[in-house]
Amino acid sequence: xxxxxxxATKTDFGRPLTVSQPNDNRAAPLRDYRAVFxxxxxxxxxxxxxxxxxxxxxxxxxxxxxxxxxxxxSPVEMLIPASSRALHEQHRSRYAEAPSPRQMGLELDxxxxxxxxxxxPVEVSLSPGEEPGPEQxxxxxxxxxxxxxxxxxxxxxxxxxxxxxxxxxxxxxDDLLQFLVAFKVRGKLLVDRxxxxxxxxxxxxxxxxxxxxxxxxxxxxxGLRPPNLEEQGxxxxxxxxxxxxxxxxxxxxxxxxTVDWASDEMDPMTVVALYRIVQEAVTxxxxxxxxxxxxxxxxxxxxxxxxxxxxEGCGFDPPGPxxxxxxxxxxxxxxxxxxxxxxxxxxxxxxxxxGTTVRATVPMVSPEGER
Length: 371
Known about the structure:
Distance between the termini: 64 Å
Shape: elongated
Number of helices: 11
Mean pLDDT: 77
Radius of gyration: 31 Å
Number of strands: 11
């Protein structure tokens, strides 16, 4: 006895489902299967033994961008990147010889092709429509681009957190710990000083070292969190950032600001995201571009705020769309993720020996729709 799903696959899904059997008790379950088919968040294709698409659900149309007329009656290879079609045909032939439920795509590098020529990672599940010797194959396709991005972002978050721990550990060891050791030694020497003048001189040295240690701790704190944006405001925080960049890295920032807003009118998460993006871009210019000056332009218009960071340094080849850079690319990816999380975008233009331009665009409207 065939299952209800098998019966459903053999109906004409291009038309309203009808059941011509006298007993109408099966009509309701079949309508339920039809409803699942139409509402599925995954693309579902029904293929014949030759790999021709015989039916598909609405999600398949939106996922691939083709019309129903273009997809029905066409080989499934139209949805496969050209470089993989020959291999796919071989896999399809072998599957027809020994059909069974099968899943692929989570660990394998399986990509599908949209009408506009873009590709995206997918998870594909295959099931025979009838046993033995299926006349149809049920093909379920899930877009896992978002899932892979989240998995990669989680991995990069862990790597970034570990790198930050190493940085803090290094700074604590090289600065604060060394100061405390020296302070202990000088404190003992100070106790042994008999001459008042020598005691005052020793204390003056200790006081200078304490001042330097305080500066170092403040520097670490600024690295952990932005300056108090609520009190300073975003533009003042940028001014502090640019001044510190010149002191620490020797990079002079030429800033041009044309705005008609106050940062307290923006969503706080957007303010922090923009600050971090500019901070990362400026730090990249200071440490990788090989230049001693860069420009930062901040302007508003059409309900958005745009920050552009540009240098004339060595440049690089940015990763292509959808690429998963290694840990060395955490900076660019974190900037893009920060922008997208607040409803903005990030664009990077660069090439070897031609400098780099980073442009971040974020909305000036909070999630509640208020300025």
